[in-house]
Structure formats: structure tokens, C-alpha cells
């Protein structure tokens, strides 16, 4: 297989420096490039290097970045999950990738997973220059997803979110909520979320465990499905009918709106694509798709 090297890259968005890793396959002149970022509350080191390494070993360059407020990227408040802010960061990463002399910025694809799967779809809808998209277990309709939030947790979660909105208006420190928890109100409250989320994090790592709670309100208005019909690039959507976070009916509806979309069904839950046999299956599917569409 092709070897690769990793170079640190920084780019600016709204006055903050975002940090990224550029994976470059050795012996490949001007390779196509894939822009990647993580899902809800995630950092680029949470299992995404495994995908980037596989792609780079197959002749694809990868720009893997952290959003503002996550990982070693600048930005306040820390851990702020916000769709429009993330989309600005994606656009900044795309502009950065197109400017890199080591890659062919005209052959550029997006790769997103979970929350960033939605970002990859929206970014492609807004940027006609994107050549291919991989959307893995993607967030497609926040309104539909919100309906699956456990009713018993709604009072506490709504109270925290309302307090955080008020804190933001007053210019105070955010009121935070855990991303995942064994019990009690948290952002990702599916039955497999605690173990699945922690399974992506390197052992012994310090990480951003909570986020400003207002996202529980704003996520309902984030509906990539409403922009799906404008995507011109070919899309590979990887989804599970038994996903605990993303209603499969919403995924099917979104895929049907995209003019050129291949929907691949996988077994297991929302977190199965990141590790083990699930990872081995989806990473090959995704790599083969990207190589075909980018001419690698």
C-alpha cells in the first residue's frame, strides 16, 4: 500500500486559528483531497485518523480538522456545538484545501459523519465545486431526530437549554450539559450512545465532556434535508435502519431528494462504523467510492 506523511496545517475562520492534519500519500503527485471533520462534540483524534490513514494509503490526501472550540483549535466558548458555526468552519477548511500546493484542489470531496454528515451535505449544496460526498450515519433532520429524545429527560434538558440561552443573552458563562451520560439529561441519549461514544476516544484522554446546552433548541432547526435537492455532486450515504439517533425514514427521505445518491445500508447501530468489523466494511466502501469519483 502507499505510504503517507502527516503535516500540521492551520487556517483562520472569524479571527480564530483552526488546526488540521494533512495526510499526504507519498509518491502521488497532486492527489485529490478529502476534507473531514467529526460529529457532535467530537475531536479529529476520535477514530477519524483510522479513516484518514486508510484513504491516504489508497492515494487520497485528507485534510482532517477540528472546529472552533474543539481539540487544539482556537475559539470560545469551548465545546460550542452550533450548525452555522460548524458550516463556516467547513467552508474555511474547503478554502484551505483548495489553496494547498501539495494537492489537486479541483478534485475535492467532503466526508462527514453523524452531525458532520449533515454538514457535508449542506456544504455540497452550497458549493458547486465539490466533486463527491460521503455522509456516514448523517444527521439529516433535527426536527425529526428531536422527536426521538427520551421524554423522561425532556424537563431537565429543556431547563438547562433555556438557562443557557438566557446566559448567552446576558453575556454570561454557558450553562452546560454532558454530551453523553450513564443516566440523566445529556445531549446524545440513545441506549448505545454512552458506550459507543466513549469507544471512539483514545484511552486515558482528557476531552470536552460537556457543551453549551442551547444546542438542544437550535438543533431542531438544523435540517439538511431541506437543501439536499441542490446537491450536484455524487453522494454515498451510509446508514443503519436500527440507528438509535438518526431516524432511518428521515435518511431515506433525504437520499431520495439528492439527484445522484447511493444509499448503502449497514448492520448495527450509530457507532458501529467507527470500530471493528463495521469500520472495516464501511471504510472500504467509502474509499472505493471516493477513488472512483475523484479519479484517484
Architecture overview:
- The chain has 296 residues and is an alpha/beta fold.
- The protein contains nine helices and ten strands.
- Helix 1 links the parallel strand 3 and strand 4.
- Helix 2 crosses helix 3.
- The longest helix has 19 residues.
- It is globular.
Short structural description:
This protein is of the alpha/beta class and about 300 residues long. The chain has nine helices and ten strands. An eight-stranded mixed beta sheet has the order 1-2-4-3-5-6-9-10, with helices on both faces. A two-stranded antiparallel ribbon has the order 7-8.
Describe the protein's topology:
Layout: E1 4-13, E2 16-25, E3 32-37, H1 48-57, E4 61-65, H2 83-99, E5 104-113, H3 115-126, E6 132-136, H4 142-146, H5 154-170, E7 176-178, H6 193-198, E8 210-212, H7 215-218, E9 235-239, H8 248-257, E10 261-265, H9 276-294
Parallel strand pairs: 3-4, 3-5, 5-6, 6-9, 9-10
Antiparallel strand pairs: 1-2, 2-4, 7-8
Helix pairs in contact: 2-3
Distance between the termini: 14 Å
What fraction of the residues are assigned to beta strands by DSSP? 15-25%
The CATH topology annotation reads as Rossmann fold
- What is the average per-residue confidence, as pLDDT, rounded to a whole number? 96
Total beta-strand segments: 10
Cα-atom radius of gyration:
18 Å
Residue share in helix: 25-40%
Number of helices: 9
- The CATH superfamily turns out to be Alpha/Beta hydrolase fold, catalytic domain
Q: How many discrete domains?
A: 1
Uncertain regions spanning at least 5 consecutive residues: none
Summarize the main sheet. Answer: 8 strands, mixed
CATH class: Alpha Beta
Oligomer: single chain
